[in-house]
Amino acid sequence: MYLFLLTFWRALQMVALAVFAPFERGRSLRGALLVILLLPLFLAWQLLHWVGLLLDELLFRGYRSVPVRQPLFVIGPPRTGTTHLHHVLSTDPDTTTFRTWECLFGLSITARYIAIGAGKLHRNLGSPFAKLGAWIGRRVAGPLDDIHPIRLDDPEEDFLTLMPLLACFLIVVPLPRARWLWRLARFDADVHGPERRAVLQYYRRAIQKHLYVFGTDKTFLSKNASFAGMTSSLLEEFPDARIIATVRDPKSVVPSQLSSLRPAMELCGFRQIPKPVQDDFLRLLEHYYASLRRTHDAYPGRIAFIENSELRYDLVPSIERAFEKLQLSLSESLRAGADRLARGTETKASSHRYTLEEFGLDEQSIRSRFAAIYTNFEFGRFQPVRSKASG
After folding, report:
1. pLDDT digit string (tens) for 191-234?
2. Which contacts (CB < 8 Å, 24+ apart) does range 169-175 have?
3. Distance CA 363, CA 200 (A)
4. pLDDT digits (tens, 9 = 90+) for 93-107
5. Gap between the Cα atoms of 104 and 122, Å rounded
């Protein structure tokens, strides 16, 4: 009940923000009206999720007894390679992870079973809507292929499970003034008391529901860029969890992140990313790096770093080193899957292009702003520099 009331309050704030969107500096009227028109549909969809979650408590309450054993979290600042690493690790048949369709349509056990049944019926009928779905996918998600490929059956970030709470950071794109989202992104530092406990419990139950359907004997694999400010809380909530954190030189991360946000923000009416919003994202990136470093020092042996360049040029050995540090066993099936995916990684080039200058930044300003990060991480050497705090 606490979370539902909190969500209702956030929904009221979202409505207020949307109503005033046409008056925001830098936002076009067309984009603002699109946000206003789509918001009721979005909120209605989240209400359907809540109905499914309620039905779970009536029909499938046994999910609460499902153990979450040694979950593995792939976390890192955005644009550091978390998606690629997640896809590689998901090739292990002993693991299970959220898929895009599940995040969008099956957050409750009830909805999962309905979606699985509908999928089987569709295939038995010869998949009559497959071509239509592929066409819609190309039209809607095609332009994002070089930024974040979207396929319904692909492994996906399970921070989308927080959408019914209106706590998913994606909402900040159409509503950048939703300050509670920026606070939740700094979860370890800024979220306390009943809200902290309730969100973590909700997320644990989301994992239990997934395991209930897809295998209680499997290891849960998670990938979230926006959980980089939540790592300490996750390790406290799941005492046997491990984290693999991807990192990358901020000189590359900053323009890549801002460039990846631009198409969605343009759709929402922003001709360019507003300067205050850009500054918010830069501060959040700083916080993500610092949070990961603090967690690394506070929980020795439970978080391992992999640098982005390793994922491209040294994939299998980098995973082996991370697993060894975390005292995890690397299965032959995972090794084979990683080796297969590594073959095309070095030669595959992305068409996603960006520069610091197009956002009014330069290398010197980034080095100055992220000075503490460059002190604690030696990019290009694959491992973070031993911090003074850790002796």
Report:
1. 999 999 999 999 999 999 999 999 999 999 999 988 999 999 99
2. 169/226, 171/14, 173/261, 173/264, 173/265, 173/268, 174/35, 174/264, 174/268, 175/14, 175/17, 175/18, 175/21, 175/35
3. 38
4. 999 999 999 999 999
5. 18
Cβ(222)–Cβ(76) below 8 Å: no
Question: Quick count: other Cβ atoms within 10 Å of Cβ 281?
Answer: 19
Q: What is the DSSP string of 68-79?
A: --S-EEEE-STT
Residue 161 pLDDT more than 90? Answer: yes
Query: Do the Cβ atoms of 83 and 258 come closer than 8 Å?
Result: no
Whole-prediction pTM? 0.88
Query: Distance from CA of residue 174 to its chain's centroid?
Result: 17
- Radius of gyration for the alpha carbons in the chain, expressed in angstroms and rounded: 21
At residue 91's C-alpha, the angle toward residues 309 and 340, to 5°, is 60
Give the whole-angstrom CA distance, residue 290 versus residue 387. 11
Location of structure tokens 């900053």: 254
Q: What are phi and psi of 246, to 5 degrees?
A: -95, 145
The Cα 27–Cα 307 span in angstroms is 37
At residue 251, φ and ψ (nearest 5 deg) are -60, -25
Determine contact, residues 202/305, Cβ cutoff 8 Å.
Answer: no
Where residue 111 falls among pLDDT bands split at 50, 70, 90?
very high
Give which of 293, 343, 299 is closest to 325, Cα–Cα.
Answer: 299
What pLDDT, on a 0 to 100 scale, did the predictor assign at position 335?
A: 87
